[in-house]
Design goal:
Largest sheet: 7 strands, mixed
Shape: globular
Number of domains: 2
CATH class of the largest domain: Alpha Beta
Order of helices and strands: HHEHHEHEHEHEHEEEHHHEHEEEH
Radius of gyration: 21 Å
Strand content: 5-15%
CATH superfamily of the largest domain: Type I PLP-dependent aspartate aminotransferase-like (Major domain)
Length: about 400
């Protein structure tokens, strides 16, 4: 569905009008793909625009879901406390305690409606009107929407040629009004994974600014791709690098459950003494209108914290596509995680370039959608036939722009 044309007399709020105009590249590409498939046939269009994982959930998920459905009990689908079922939160806290060595309890865990819902809860609990939130470009476009919805102000900070945060730019961007720094590793759209040195340096910059301004700044770490890493790369938790850290995650990618909208928020025990922050985030489930995360999915995922899809499948797809595209002349920083790559467009106008790809029946998303013009995003979490079928379109486009 295309965004409607709105006028100055529209009943739609100005903020939403602006966001509708500026955003939506990913969904628009997806919708264009549906239209092209209808016109030319599904086998003729190769849609690499949306991060909708093709892998099915692990067998453990199906078994646990079937066990619950076949053994219903009274109250199984009723409301619970806003934070979620205590037993589910306790299982997640146990998992995180083993992973991090920190004393997590159920009080630090809030079940939420996907990672997007979790980000909304964290920002709603932390931000006052006019507080500033730093994001690193390239960024997931909806960050800006979540920030604006809480009357915050987005401050975009650059990254280097490998999509790692520019620490000098971060230092310069932090002001007395800075309340949150959002990080995303493994990253959407680049697949970059932040090293120990990078995380340590981010924490040091933030703490130095806190000391200078007498303020408290939070890291909100968006981690739905945490388990999707390759080549022995280590994805470290941000908790150990700054005491005021909140992790937001979901099981959309590691269990391939995007449509179930189930995730959680985890508050560093060091900044949840007395439970105030955890209680506030849980309350925001009600204030945001979610009330609580889906009951059945809470019960299922509580038993699956150590479970993950077969990551080697995504690695295989990455390796194949990276080899083919670089062989055509495309410039790509090889992703270390997630299931995206972010090649450099051969012309400055990435919108022009992605439209040329579309004319060759290959759908991608322009870099401008992620705050980084001159690039484009490929989602390779698709069937092999889609990746293989896209190569002819990539090659024709590369030839037109003199890459090969």
């Amino acid at each position: 569905m295309k965004s409607p044309n709105v006028t100055k007399n529209s009943v739609i709020s100005r903020v939403i009008q602006e966001q509708m105009e500026q955003g939506g590249f990913i969904r628009k590409a997806f919708e264009l793909g549906l239209a092209l498939k209808k016109q030319y046939g599904e086998d003729k269009v190769f849609d690499l625009s949306l991060g909708n994982p093709i892998l099915e959930p692990p067998d453990e998920f199906r078994k646990e879901l079937q066990r619950l459905v076949n053994n219903p009990f009274p109250g199984m689908h009723r409301y619970m406390v806003n934070a979620g079922y205590p037993e589910t939160r306790a299982e997640i806290a146990k998992y995180l305690a083993e992973e991090t060595g920190l004393p997590f309890t159920a009080s630090e865990i809030v079940m939420c409606v996907g990672a997007g819902g979790g980000l909304t809860l964290a920002l709603k609990a932390l931000l006052n009107r006019g507080d500033e939130v730093i994001v690193f470009a390239p960024y997931f476009p909806e960050y800006l929407l979540y920030i604006a919805a809480q009357w915050g102000i987005s401050r975009v900070v650059t990254t280097d040629s490998n999509f790692i945060p520019d620490l000098k730019a971060l230092e310069k961007a932090i002001t007395r009004r800075t309340k949150v720094v959002i990080i995303n590793s493994p990253n959407n759209p680049t697949g970059a994974v932040y090293s120990k040195d990078t995380l340590r340096s981010i924490g040091q910059v933030i703490q130095a600014k806190e000391s200078r301004f007498g303020t408290k700044i939070f890291i909100v770490s968006d981690e739905p791709y945490r388990k999707l890493v390759y080549d022995g790369k280590e994805c470290l938790y941000a908790f150990g690098f700054h005491p005021r850290t909140i992790m937001v995650t979901s099981h959309s990618k590691d269990l391939s459950l995007p449509g179930e909208r189930i995730g959680y928020v985890a508050v560093n025990p060091e900044c949840n003494r007395g439970g105030e922050l955890g209680v506030a985030i849980a309350f925001c489930n009600r204030a945001a209108g979610f009330v609580n995360a889906p009951a059945l999915m809470q019960r299922v995922v509580s038993k699956l914290q150590w479970t993950c899809v077969d990551v080697s499948e995504y690695k295989r797809k990455r390796d194949f596509l990276y080899k083919e595209l670089t062989g055509m002349g495309y410039s790509i920083v090889k992703p270390d995680g997630a299931f995206y790559m972010f090649p450099k467009a051969p012309v400055a106008n990435d919108l022009e370039f992605t439209m040329e790809l579309t004319s060759n029946f290959v759908l991608t998303v322009p870099g401008v959608a992620f705050g980084t013009p001159g690039y484009f995003r490929i989602a390779y979490c698709v069937e092999d036939r889609v990746i293989e079928g896209s190569l002819d379109g990539f090659r024709k486009t590369a030839e037109k722009y003199g890459l090969c």
